[in-house]
Batch of 2 targets.
Target 1
Amino acid sequence: MSDEKIEAYTGPAGGWGSAGSLVEILTREQIPATGAAMLMKQNKPDGFMCVSCAWAKPAKPLAFEYCENGAKATAWEQTRRRATPDFFAAHTVSELLGWPDYDLEEQGRLTHPMRYDPASDRYRPVAWEEAFAEIGAELKALDPRSVIFYASGRASLETSYMYALLARMYGNNNLPDSSNMCHESTSVALPPAIGVPVGTTRLEDFEHTDLILFFGQNVGSNAPRMLHPLQEARRRGVQIITFNPLRERGLERFTNPQAPLEMLTNSSTQISTQYHQVKAGGDLAALTGLCKAVLAADRDAERARRPRILDTAFIEAHTHGLEALARFCDGQDWADIERRSGLKREAIEAAASVYMRARSVIGIYGMGLTQHRKGTETVQMLVNLLLLRGNIGRPGAGICPVRGHSNVQGQRTVGIAEKPELVPLDRLAEQYGFEPPREKGLNTVEACEGILKGSVRAFIGLGGNFVRAVPDTAPMEAAWRALRLSVQVSTKLNRAHLVRGEIAYILPCLGRIEVDRQASGPQAVSMEDSCSAFHGSRGVSEPVSAHVRSEPWIVAGLAKAVLAPNPKLDWDSWVADYARIRDAIEATYPDVFKDFNARMFEPGGFYKPLAARERRWNTETGRANFIAPEGLEADPDMPRSDETGLDLITLRSNDQFNTTVYGYSDRFRGVNGTRRILFMNGHDLARLGLADGDTVDVETDARDGVERAVRGLRVVAYDIPAGNCGGYYPEMNVLIPLWHHDEQAKTPAAKAIPVRVTRAAPNPV
Ligand SMILES: Nc1nc2c(c(=O)[nH]1)N[C@H]1C(S)=C(S)[C@@H](COP(=O)(O)OP(=O)(O)OC[C@H]3O[C@@H](n4cnc5c(=O)[nH]c(N)nc54)[C@H](O)[C@@H]3O)O[C@H]1N2
Ligand SMILES: Nc1nc2c(c(=O)[nH]1)N[C@H]1C(S)=C(S)[C@@H](COP(=O)(O)OP(=O)(O)OC[C@H]3O[C@@H](n4cnc5c(=O)[nH]c(N)nc54)[C@H](O)[C@@H]3O)O[C@H]1N2
Ligand SMILES: [Mo]
């Protein structure tokens, strides 16, 4: 860890800071020369698809179609560092449990399959056949309902299809994935509203839009390639109105590091034209205010016989439920809306008036909307606003959830789903001659509940760092140790390997950037981006070790060890040639994956058919539905008691990918050398008798008899709304009660956790 340094950052997103940060990590991971050549292949039709975010890949890529953080992800995966058997021999698991996340992954790539040895408290190398034999025997002895098959959103469509099939043939739908902690609120909100579970916007829509509404997504850190279409849009005079408690730098100003003139002249583009620092969980109120203002203006227009504000033709022909929405909005006082959103009525009306004049509007959002108790309702409220003016299903308009992991959306498309109704089970039954389980499987929160209760006995992880990513860290880690079996298919060492079950395996896999050679030659894989386009991807660098295997090979190995032979499914022939897996995917989903093998390298990808884009609505009413929420409160549980109460937002820094911590520099927020900080508003500091630099303890205000605390955080005075505070994920996950999740989608509510902040007690002598 370098020295702590905390000072305001004045530069733009991108720019020289970005270039410098990139050189730093390429040097640290010892790959300056090869790294640069590799990056030229990133997100190109003939190259590999970035392992960082899921943002869309254009058909005509830039010379360098990657961003600072995508390049960091490449460097992190292609590091020269190795976590070899010698490393594991030198450290007990108990010792490694004391290491920070950064130090664990910084050991480098895993090189050998490893099995936990209780006698020495160490991981020891094991042969692949031996690993599969024991895992297979253990799984066969367990009740299938007690086994979880988790996926973290990165594995390819080919791997994911096989993995989902493995779980179903084994006998369960226990297929939670990282999406359950992420955009599940989207997947639950959109189908009843517009009849599809995903966004309706494509990259080309950015060229035809007049206004972009941006809710709770930190583009500069988490989807930086989107800054290019945003910059282009701004140059055309498109307005961007942002709702975010923090003034995130990428939403304010951007200097394109790939534009020499911009770099030399230090010029930057202003991104947001209005910036509203809504309170955490205040979006439901703010969106209600926006709808209320639009409805009021429409009534005025109608009375004065001016052109209507609502798209009445669209509403008439295509929607249902406007009256109920209008009733809800009429019933809300501006005073309540102001109090809950933290925004002035004038500010909301200013945003509404731009919205009413814009012809085509895109609504973009991320975790700031989805990770709340009423995340689903909040997403539906954004849909309501868009529907009022017909902003779904035409060029330049649409809803745009920004997905996280690079193939998280695709994993759902090919069957990784705990909800059996989302999967063509009958077709699978016919294709493979087995009876798929029909019982609902466990999602992430339910899997955690099962682990806590002891009803879950084994956990298989296809990537990810489950126990670190979920809420209630302390009881979860304790319960995790009682698992009979934990198996993690991984690229790097993380905490989920160390907390481990009684029998524990780490199975090291190839990353997507590496050449994957099988019997028929080097293989390609595919994924789906955030705009529902499918892309092929080819590895470009040599595998990290002769002992690692590809994810399809590992999944097939597990399948062959657990399942009885099936004459309709030859796992080995799939592994020999992944094109055969794609043929199987096409057979299961003929409409979505028509001519899959022929189309997978089309520049810009090929799109999944989306009825809502054509204004066909696969909903119960056959129309797009306005869905009114129950109230304005996005986080209605846990009533705040005393005046020490604050709502905690858990945040990603600019130097991490989820639980992977690349370093200790959150450049845009001016924090360096530490992650143990708490962002606080000056007004709250004064109220609590605290000052910048003080050390505080944070406790959850949950009233459920469980103590949850993070102690010894350094206070950083910050431009964050009064009543909110911010800290880093995953360190703050200790504070989130497992039951504090979206009511409908069960996405953990990680963005407004009621906490009490107090000056840290001096250490007892
Ligand atoms: N470099 C990098 N890229 C990533 C990731 C990463 O960790 N690092 N993670 C990937 C994954 S899996 C995901 S899901 C995405 C996550 O990307 P985002 O969706 O951007 O998620 P967060 O960084 O958690 O924070 C979202 C933003 O919401 C704001 N916010 C918090 N609470 C509220 C609220 O109540 N209302 C509003 N309007 N805003 C709020 C925060 O200030 C922050 O700017 O990024 C993906 N891309
Ligand atoms: N408090 C709080 N909690 C959150 C969030 C939040 O905003 N706040 N965000 C939530 C969100 S949006 C998400 S998506 C989850 C993320 O939860 P996960 O997806 O479970 O976690 P990651 O940190 O992305 O997983 C990192 C690990 O994946 C492995 N890995 C990396 N690349 C590969 C690969 O190519 N193949 C395989 N097999 N393994 C690989 C590495 O071993 C690495 O250590 O966390 C959630 N938790
Ligand atoms: Mo995510």
Note: The chain has a mean pLDDT of 94.
Target 2
Amino acid sequence: MAFKPANHIQDLQYFGEFGGVNPSISDSSTYTFLSAKTMFDTFEGNADGCYLYSRHSSPSNLYLGEALAAMEGTETATVTASGMGAITPVILQLCGAGDHVVSSRTIYGGTYAFLKNFTPRLGIETTFIDITKLDIVEAAITPNTKVLYCESVSNPLLEVADIKGLSNLAKKYNLKLVVDNTFSPLSISPITLGADIVVHSLTKFINGSSDTVGGVVCGTQELIDNLRNVNSGAAMLLGATMDSLRSASVLKNLRTLHIRMMQHSQNASYLAEKFENDGLKTVYPGLASHPSHGLFKSMMNDKYGFGGMMTIDVGTIDNANALMEMMQEHNLGYLAVSLGFYKTLFSAPGSSTSSEIPEDEQKEMGLSDGLIRFSIGLDADIERTYKMMKDCMVQLGIL
Ligand SMILES: *Cc1c(COP(=O)(O)O)cnc(C)c1O
């Protein structure tokens, strides 16, 4: 049966303390107990429904976590203060000194930097590979490998991971397949394809209003319990806790995610087709020319399309910078990193979000200087946007 993530979110029902249509926000860092015994049991994690301290859990964080677990089809989830605050504890929970990670080489710059520069200090080594080649992935697995890490749609090159194929490898070698699904919420449901753990930066499409950072880990009850363990849990002890006021606001934004994703996808798809027809080197998973178009199609849920992210290559960094500045002047979007906003956002990843990746490695993975990454907005009149963007390109001699 088809997986319907938006239904799963909508089927949850929470009321506020006084019958409010939104759940009440518990605006407290600490909680009182009538009996000292219950306080002890709660600390040990043995008193369901009781709260002790808001780094451990809070009603608002549990509501948001439950909604995101429903969206991804996992037993449960834990929300965190940022996407990196979700990714780093997962790696550290699953790996210790001597362990090994096999990771896609085209991942978010912060994740890349963490695996490349930080975890080796703790004795965790990572091999970065081309995730689209399963034979190369398999060849990189060693007896010490614990984690297979990828993004369902990669940042910034929009490579698509074959999650079923990777999951088969993970099962064969007893690894955990961790998928960052930030670029494709609702469109792709990695758990249904065999992933073990899904992480998101809530900062992007899921929250969608560019007013906060946030993250989530969706997984089994056992994993989330381990992450939250007061004695040994990486999420608990590293302390990247989301604030209750913020999780309540992210939950309200999550209510409209399905509508926003449809509009982001529709607009991006329109622009990608037009730009490609104009002769620009355009990368969008919805284009038949995308090497993984068929794969994305085979993995996607109905309705939500191929997402809001696309790239064009305008040849040189000077062209890219001039075009981005001109588009911003014409109010077609903002020269800004991040994604999932109502407004189109654009940046040149080589010199910004992927600048952690050394230049020669950027070249090797096809990340060229003239690449512009777009997070296409919710424009009500995308034909007008297209015409105005094209005008900018003509004025600059790019088209
Ligand atoms: C932004 C991003 C992250 C990091 O999330 P933060 O909320 O900035 O910590 C991780 N993965 C992907 C794919 C991202 O786009």
Note: The first strand starts at residue 76 and ends at 80.
